[in-house]
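Below sits my pick:
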Amino acid sequence: MRWIGFCWLFALLVGCTSIDQPKPPSNQFAVYIFDQDAVPGLGPTADTAWQILQAVPLAQAAFTVTEDLLLSYHWPTQTITFTNPWGQDIRDAPFYMVGGHGAFIVVFQEQRLFGGKVVAAESPRRFDYPAMALSQDFILMENPALQGKLVYSFHPRSAVMYPPQSQFLATDPSITEAVKNHLRQLGKLIE
């Protein structure tokens, strides 16, 4: 009888403990950034790049822009600003964040939306898939308010210059609207 009572008490405690455990958020927005070891190349076309980015495990990301690090998402220019965990300016960040050797994947609710190459604004590279470009203004640190932050914009493909974009690169309009609403609820959307 004592054993049954102990088992009942144990089951009750385990059951209560699991109820009190916080659940991870179901609407998660993140940008996974990979170094050249995890993603050594993306191939010549958008199709080859996306096949590679669909297959790479997210756990191999060298860095992840989480909702906690994300400071703002400026929707009209498709620009994200997030905390620089490495220091005050880009010189403190690893090479894969600026040198054109990094790759990225934007994820929402565990779904990969789009991805491509991480580049600096003056990058001479040409490719036919999305770019996550670090702006020239940011590299020169002309704005002291940007210290301790990193600023990137998303673009449909590489370019000599990266003019502001106005279109979220996910192909499904309902997902685009869901991302926008989620960022608005977080208070991190600039419209």
Strands lie at 29-34, 63-65, 70-74, 79-83, 102-108, 111-120, 131-134, 149-155, 189-190. Confidence is low (pLDDT under 50) at residues 1-26.
